Amino acid sequence: MIAIGPTIGDWEVAHDVSDWIEIAAVTVIAVTVVVSIVVMVRAAVTGGSAATSLWVFKQAFSRGVLLGLDLLIAADIIRTVTLDPTLENVAALGLLVVVRTFLSWALVLEAEGRWPWQRRDDADSLA
Q: Which conformational region is residue 113 in: left (phi greater than 0), alpha (psi within -120 to 50 degrees), or beta?
């Protein structure tokens, strides 16, 4: 029987998908830098203090970088699980996920002033 289109076990498709996810992640991070700077400048021009402008920048930047990191993790998982699922590669993936998790926590702490597992104050959730 001849299969039409991509099939399970078609590792070239998995490789292409992981490449496109990585491209999307890099694009998200690059656009985040530009948007964050624009938002910060707009906040400064509209009369915000330097601290407020910096806080606005941190908020916008952290969210975009977190999304980019999530996409990079997804690409790594696809690549490791489908293309080369050796014990060494799975261990490397585990280490990457741990490092990116700590980086994500640090970004949340920097942007929001709290750890990701801490509850938000009611005033924070309205912002």
A: left
What pLDDT, in 10s, does the model give residues 50-94? 888 888 888 889 889 889 988 998 998 888 888 777 888 888 888
CB-based contact 78:94 (threshold 8 Å): no
Distance CA 85, CA 65 (A): 27
d(CA 105, CA 117): 9
Q: How many C-alpha atoms does 33 have within 13 Å on its Cβ side?
A: 5
**pLDDT above 90 (res 22):** yes
pLDDT band at 27 (very low <50, low <70, confident <90, very high): very high
The answer to whether 116 and 108 have CB atoms below 8 angstroms apart is yes
Question: Token pair 């994500």 is at which residue?
Answer: 104
**H helices present in the chain, as ranges:** 11-45, 50-78, 87-112, 122-126
Burial of 118 (0-12, 13-18, 19+ CB in 10 A): exposed
